[in-house]
# Entry
Amino acid sequence: MKAMYRLVVMMVAVVALLALSMPVYASKDSRIESSAKKSYVFKTYLTADDIIIQSKDGVVTLTGTVSEESHKLLAQETVAGLPAVKSVDNRLEVKGTSPAKNSDAWITVKVKTMILFHRNVSTMTEVNTTNGIVTLQGKANSQAQKDLATEYAKDIEGVKDVKNEMTIAKTSKKTQTAGRKIDDASITALVKMTLLYHRSTSALNTSVTTNNGVVTLSGKASNAAEKDLATKFANDVHGVKSVKNLMTIK
# Structure
């Protein structure tokens, strides 16, 4: 009789524990979904995409459609950087046909995306590509900003040369995100994408983490020049306060 009583008590305890744990998981999953939707990346770059975020016990599934291949990876990297996320199952589909790699359309998309991620390049830059030669038009706030746009565009895979026809604005304007706090998950995703898009750092085996806007890079670089470029590119991403480069030289 006592054994039966103990068994009943144990079963009640187990049921109670399960009941208590379920709301905790549900609460974490709800926070993950909400944080993703409120993130800088989703509210700035992915607003026109139809992305459904579902989380179960920290495992996130992304479904729906995006307009570009880069948006698919950007959404995944942003969600992966959120607290309590264990893994991401990316089932997003790209609308229409993606441009062939190294085609003029492909290069144009890459250069435009790079410009959006960097804060010291004018967002008023127009990009056109013909036979691998990129033409930049629009307005820059300074000669330094114009020169930086040329430097960054030349470092995109497939670009043969850059013609910079941008004009210098008479009055400089502050970047739109100056002083604006950007969440760490978005910063991590943007830095990862930036290093991937730049030809000089695309092959680097780099790990990126962000804490209160401070980015830490770890992994391996072939030489000091690659390591320095990784720091430079990461420093120029929206929301980054500073960069700690702990990468080692092979």
Q: What stands out?
A: Helices lie at 2-38, 40-44, 69-80, 104-117, 143-154, 184-197, 224-235. Confidence is low (pLDDT under 50) at residues 175-179. The first strand starts at residue 50 and ends at 56.
